[in-house]
Amino acid sequence: MRNFSAVILAAGAGVRINSSIPKVMHKLSGKPLLEWVIKAVSFLKPDDIVVVLGHGAGTVEKYLSGKNIKIVYQEKQLGSAHALMQAEKVFENYKGKILVISGDVPLIKPSTLSTLIKNNKETGASVTVLVAEVKDPFGYGRIVKNNGLLEKIVEEKDATYVEKQIKQINSGIYCFDKNLWEALSKVKPNNAKKEYYITDTVAILKESGKKVSLTAIKDDYEIKGINNRTELSQAERILKDKKVKELLDNGVSIIDVNNVYISYDAKIGRDTVIYPGVFIDTGVSRGKGCIIKGTSYITNSKIGDESVISYSYVDGAFVSKKVKIGPFSHIRPESVLKENVKIGNFSETKKVLIEKNSKVNHLSYIGDAKLGKDVNIGAGTITCNYDGVKKHRTIIGAKSFVGSNVNFIAPVKIGQGVLVAAGSTITHDVPSGKLAIARAKQELKCRKI
Ligand code: UD1
Ligand code: CA
Is 362 a catalytic site residue? Predict the structure, then answer.
């Protein structure tokens, strides 16, 4: 869909969120609020996207750099109409429609925006306002009608008692034609907040004989504006509840739906069981028939079928099928765990490739390493990978057996079928098939009492 451009208003101080970070940079499910809005708008392929920045512009600007987005600045935050005026220079000879949306409505769907634009084109209105019926309209601008037709929008602080009872509210999302700019120039700050309100353009356009119209949507969650941390947390809840419902419908068991957090983008296969206390953050895909027990945190990881993770922290891992992790393991970025691998209690892995059937069952640190198939690592084994300046690798061949409490001083290479005696500190390579013992000999001396 083209022949329209979008302006995203994001200059407001966001006082109600009470933060040193600009409101639109607060994260919802791992992504800044502004990114959600940009994504929804971009989906419709507008001719241009303009973001109005002001409060905390530096931070937002940095985040926007490299993206195909135009930025204009509102020096003083004099209201939403004043913010929009700053974008006028970008659209001097532009004939298309102007979609205006606040940077704080992250849950909006592209399909709703496209319906709004389509309705605006079809009705030939100078402005079409996206509205919704809500149970609690407090804080929103109310849609005031006359003889069933849109008359004006009144803000909470300016509304009369009767107007406050209206449940149909302004979403803060509008589609304008080119008459927008003239209407904006007529807005006066005659209201409780002494601000230039974009909402006043509706009455201004109507009074000048232009057509104004509405597009009503049923799902009011979509237009939820985030003004404070309560609303931010409610938006997280909305996303999570939708995700949980989708997963339950797709054959995933969730033992206590109120006691898990699952990111909107998680992909989870059928017959996986999620226990209470599990936190699946962004970037996770899981296979079928997995079990995840709490309290586990998983992010940016791919987990194969029938794997079990219990009470563990998993970040940036590629896990094949039938792998067992935990209880109490820490799987760090670039850990590749092949089929049937087991990482047990209090073991940590980082930047490793561990081949099929190998086990790191207890209290070990395996980092910057490669383990062949069927390797057994005894309790308390450490790859000493860091010399204070550089990281070095440990390579252990297939079918090697490492006794408890072994230190591998990397770089070091252990062949296949090697037996490393418990308590060894391995400083040199060990060829395949050898038994390596590198520990002080036990001595017996007389005990003086
Ligand atoms: C606004 C609408 C209200 C609607 C609600 C929906 C106005 C006057 N009111 O109220 O009718 O129901 O959204 O969520 O618009 N902004 C600037 N510069 C400014 C002031 C605001 O860029 O000087 C931006 C903000 O960053 C924000 C948007 O305009 O993205 C709306 O401002 P906000 O203060 O959030 O308005 P609401 O009170 O939510
Ligand atoms: Ca708002």
Answer: yes
